[in-house]
Design goal:
Layout (H helix, E strand, L loop, with lengths): L1 E4 L16 H16 L3 E8 L2 E9 L14 E9 L8 H15 L4 E7 L3 H9 L4 E7 L7 E8 L2 H12 L5 E7 L6 E7 L3 E6 L2 H4 L4 H17 L16 E3 L2 E7 L13 H16 L20 H10 L5 H6 L1 H18 L4 E3 L8 E4 L2 E4 L6 E3 L1 H13 L8 H14 L8 H23 L8 H23 L1 H8 L1
Parallel strand pairs: 4-5
Antiparallel strand pairs: 1-2, 2-3, 3-4, 5-7, 6-7, 8-9, 9-10, 10-12, 11-12, 13-16, 14-15
Helix pairs in contact: 7-11, 7-12, 10-13, 11-12, 11-13, 13-14
């Protein structure tokens, strides 16, 4: 089976699904082709051996009721037909889910559909698929003159989280749902129910499409559990019925107990905080993770990013970061090569660790830290992670590295780490830049909608990350000689 959006030229193929009346078909065809020309509709279909066996028409403009659509937000679904020889196999539900997934990627979050008042079977199916709110009544046109009820399905945090709470039994009713500052890839909500307070993470759908995404989250939770058993104040997900991730209507969520505390601003980080972080990193590196060792995960990323390709697209789209990218393209290629060489050397000594221990991933209750967001857990060279962490916690702003704090973290780490800091700092310090380059690469794909479709909020976030990350990479490179002295 193949699911796709058809072109106007393919519309004639839908005739076999239409009621057997040539005169009505010609009127219907004329109307639909005019709507195609005005970009008022799209048609999604199922194909079997190049024959169309099912269809749904998407209306972007109101026709019968003012409640059918909202420009850029809500669409109306109609002409939902499946060839009678293929009915009863769940294909209609699969087509509907395919259509909604595509529309979500284009920024639509509300969907309406008309159901005849007396069609209880159809009502049951649509209720099951999330069309639960009756918002209007209408009467069909000459092609389908029945009275109908207009039902609405919403894809937003409240509706999904409401269903999540019910299915996981962490509350009978929601008191409040508030979006809070979370990671840069996913969305986080503070959810208060009649049973407790939770942090709910809505996982980025583009991330979840990756082949290894689910197994990476499972691995990260194993790391978190072992870290907790070894005295690290690690916050892991609530495993409900043994599940790490909950799926609601093709959306993925993780649930955590809410932890009151504070994420420090750069200017609030003291030397005492730096001592604590240096000690924690050493303790994590000392942990025996041999029970979950995975040779497949020891692959160190080495990639030559195609910066010129991104520059061409950025200039074509007239983005706000095109000039910054152009001005630094030679440096990006140079650092990419050195970072790759460093990465190859770094793989000679690897440990399992958090790998993203910056200030946003530590919640403080006074001077007691709780480590969150272990999702990036994996193999890393310990000296590289020391460089990263010392940088994270001693860089007040780009261009304002606090060498005293950097040194405190390094010295405190040395006190507690049972291994040795690698002497070949020159190579490893360039290897550290690789993660920054990979982050720029990822955000260029998001901002330019390459390989994934992102909503407006995500694109703006990605654009900001591109600017900040390139500026930070430039500054990091200028400080390398001084950092090498502090690490030796």
């Amino acid at each position: 089976m193949n699911y796709k959006k058809i072109k106007k030229e393919e519309f004639e193929k839908l005739k076999k699904l239409f009621p057997d009346n040539e005169e009505i078909w010609q009127k219907y065809r004329k109307q639909r082709l005019e709507q195609f020309d005005k970009k008022e509709i799209d048609v999604f279909v199922i194909e079997d051996n190049n024959e169309i066996i099912g269809e749904i028409t998407i209306n972007y403009i109101n026709h019968n009721l003012q409640t059918e659509t909202i420009l850029g937000k809500r669409v109306y679904l109609e002409a939902f037909r499946i060839d009678k020889n293929y009915q009863g196999k769940g294909l209609g539900q699969k087509l509907l889910n395919y259509v909604i997934d595509n529309l979500i990627q284009d920024g639509y979050t509300e969907f309406t559909i008309g159901v005849e008042k007396t069609n209880d079977i159809a009502k049951h199916i649509y209720f099951k698929l999330g069309f639960i709110e009756a918002i209007d009544k209408g009467h069909g046109d000459e092609f389908d003159p029945s009275d109908y009820i207009l039902y609405l399905k919403k894809i937003d945090c409240y509706y999904n989280i409401k269903k999540l709470i019910k299915e996981t039994n962490i509350g009978n009713k929601i008191i409040t749902v508030d979006k809070v500052t979370g990671g840069l890839s996913h969305r986080m909500y503070k959810v208060v129910t009649d049973k407790g307070i939770y942090a709910v993470k809505e996982l980025n759908p583009n991330v979840m499409k990756r082949k290894q995404a689910y197994s990476n989250f499972l691995f990260a939770e194993k790391v978190t559990d072992i870290a907790k058993m070894n005295g690290i104040s690690a916050i892991g997900t609530n495993k409900i019925n043994g599940k790490v991730i909950e799926e609601i209507d093709n959306n993925y969520f993780m649930i955590f107990d809410w932890k009151d505390g504070k994420i420090l601003k750069n200017e609030e980080i003291t030397e005492e905080h730096c001592k604590i972080i240096g000690k924690i990193l050493a303790k994590i590196h000392n942990i025996d993770f041999s029970d979950i060792e995975d040779e497949k995960r020891k692959q160190i990323n080495v990639e030559e990013f195609d910066w010129n390709k991104y520059l061409k697209v950025a200039e074509c789209q007239n983005t706000t970061f095109a000039t910054l990218l152009k001005d630094n393209i030679s440096l990006l290629y140079e650092l990419n090569k050195k970072a790759n060489d460093g990465q190859i050397y770094a793989k000679t000594h690897l440990v399992i660790s958090h790998t993203d221990l910056d200030r946003k991933n530590v919640i403080w209750q006074e001077n007691i830290p709780f480590i969150i967001d272990w999702e990036a857990s994996g193999y890393i060279n310990p000296t590289i992670e020391l460089i990263q962490v010392a940088w994270y916690w001693s860089d007040g702003d780009i261009g304002n590295l606090n060498y005293d704090k950097f040194k405190i973290i390094v010295e405190e780490y040395k006190k507690y780490y049972k291994g040795n800091i690698d002497k070949n700092i020159d190579k490893l310090i360039y290897a550290d830049i690789y993660s920054g380059l990979a982050w720029v690469n990822y955000n260029l794909q998001r901002a330019l909608c390459i390989e994934c479709k992102c909503d407006k909020e995500e694109i703006e976030l990605a654009e900001n990350e591109i600017k900040c990350s390139i500026e930070e990479i430039i500054y990091n490179e200028s400080q390398m000689k001084q950092m090498i002295k502090l690490l030796k």
